[in-house]
Amino acid sequence: MSRPLFNLAGVCGWPIHHSLSPLIHNYWLKEMGLKGAYVHFAVRPDEAVSAFKSLKRTSISGVNVTLPLKGLAFESADERTSDAQRLGVANCLFKRNGNLVAHNTDLEGFAAPLVQKTDIRVLTNNPSLVIGTGGAARAVIGALLSLGVPEIRICGRTDQYAKDLASDIDLPSLYAIPWAERKNAVVGTSLIVNASAGGMTGKPALSFDLSNAGSEALVYDLIYTPRVTPLLKQAENLGLKTLGGLEMLIAQARPSFKHFYGETPPIELDPTSLILEALEKNRLRKKDQEAA
Fold first, then answer.
1. pLDDT value at residue 284
2. Given 70, 163, 183, 287, which residue is catalytic?
3. Gap between the Cα atoms of 224 and 21, Å rounded
4. pLDDT tens, position by position, 84-95
5. Which CATH superfamily is domain 107-246 in?
6. Is-catalytic flag, 203?
7. Domain made up of 7-104: CATH architecture
């Protein structure tokens, strides 16, 4: 069955006005000469399930889903891909053969920039550390397991959450480390991932000491506002390799775009400069508001 001449898709959340996803997808649509649009959809959590299920009766080709609606998107679907099943949440809904399909692109989005930045053989021969215990941490752990990382350490500010996450996954190679022992959790790791909100604009900085990390360790912070987080600044000062969340944001958008519009954006179509410009405008706008 042929696709419609104009495809409408978007991103759902509550709130949602801050999302940069429309900037990314509309850039690709324009550069690839495709007829379509990608917009914000504000969806209340108490109305989300009915809203998502109604997608099958609309001309909307699909939606991305952000907090706090990822679990509700998973619940609303008729089918779930293996990546969505693995994480128990969905950040992408699309239609296939009359059914609503829940998918999660966070696994692919996390892994794609990582394998470009570091040698996969290093990852598969050394432990990794994941900071955080929420949905993002689950996606990171799922991706690391898929890549064959031999040992995964989990560390979060609430020790019980870290223990619960390790217990849920239930693998001997994956275990929790108490927050009080976090300075030593980095010893011997080839990868340190911040999958928490610590260091995000408007949030307290992540209290984490990287001084015991080996010189070859890569520090990967999933946060992209600010572009360089306090954790990444600390890593750079120690001479460690770094990777920011903006790369993941773009990488996880590519497979969603394929589901919505039928084509995968070429790697050379890079929206990074547009996103950085938008982030700087937002920063200056907020500064002006605070000064007023």
1. 80
2. 70
3. 13
4. 998 888 999 999
5. NAD(P)-binding Rossmann-like Domain (3.40.50.720)
6. no
7. 3-Layer(aba) Sandwich (3.40)
